[in-house]
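note to self — DONT lose this again. spent like an hour looking for the file last time. sequence + predicted structure for the chain T wanted, 201 res
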Amino acid sequence: MHTWFECKIRYEKTMENGMNKKVTEPYLVDALSFTEAEARIIEEMAPFISGEFTVSDIKRTNYSELFPCEEEAADRWFKCKLVFITLDEKSGAEKKTSTQVLVQAADLRDAVKKLDEGMKGTMADYQIASVTETAIMDVYPYEPNETEDDSNTEVSRFINRFPEGQCTEVTIGGKSVIIDKTGNKPKVIPNGSIESEAKNE
């Protein structure tokens, strides 16, 4: 069973007109706790954002199911409220229970189509109560098979984004970190400490 957390990332984004603008973008992360959700979203976002970013908000969400899609056009996430109708065996009365699922699709029509496809194996009758587009930018499910080499590659990519021959200060998760690329090997120095995460010589 997945536990999904919506994490909001605040950073300065370069817009299409070349201007920098502070934006807040929500992402969905599969984690066991708020602490793990924060750590995971920092790890996922660090390679893609050059400069400072903060996790401005984390909240637990109640999605019972996710239907991702590999199609290039399916670049939006839609929140779908479903109402399941069951019959009470004793009284014969209808009982309604609702649940929320998240569907990745190109538009509203596509979301309904993909929702019906995803729900094909369901035995219970259901009604689609609502389908609304969310602001969610991306979803990061938990992948236990990730190796240490993979995470090291991500860190290397992140460090490579910074200019050679310079020291750059960035804030990750509220902590100040210096990316030092003045020597032969790049160094990551947390909180002004002289100890480097990347082994130097």
